[in-house]
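Hi everyone,

Forwarding the result from last night's run.
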Amino acid sequence: MDTPLFLGFAVAYLVLLVWGVRQASRHGWWTPANLPLLVVAALVYDNLVLGIGRWIGEGSLLEGLNLARYWIHAAITPVLVAWALHTLRRAGFSWAQARWYQVASIAASLALTVAEYFLEVQGLTLEPQQEFGVLSYNSTEPASGPPLMVLVVAAFLVVAGALLWKKQGWPWLFVGAVIMTIGSGVEVPVDSGAITNLFELVLLVSIMATKSFQDRRTTSV
């Protein structure tokens, strides 16, 4: 059953969140470098709701908790675009220091949020679904492949990861983003609905490790 897996993912993300908060306390809070903390916190919630759904049972409470998952995903995930572009500023690319670049980073994230609202959230209706021992509420519209927003975010992360690898000799953001991209696009022959969440965890570990790496480099300069 997938229930222990989702609960395990929630714990793993909670550990990542604590690590990230400790980093932010040492290196400063008011910086785009901390944007992944929002995503990690959202994934704690997401996996926890999936993990405890069978004990809550069908009804308005579980439906509301799952509806919030969709809204949080649409609002929070696009900030990874702004974060990915910010890593290039931190890496020292001269063209990434311009004011227009900062504005474009924010605009790209906002555009993705708006697009996700109209494509996935507006008019959303949910129905109960039980799969591999997990009870949740999912969209009544059948999925036709990975969401557009996920693919766009992954593309930004892959490109940023490749540039960081070349500039700073740090390959792990690129590796994590590629693993997530492949995992989202390829059907893995495993009897589990939690496999995509495993790829997400790999990506977020690579993101938080990248943040830590750049924090250390900034401090040592």
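The mean pLDDT is 89.

Cheers,
N.
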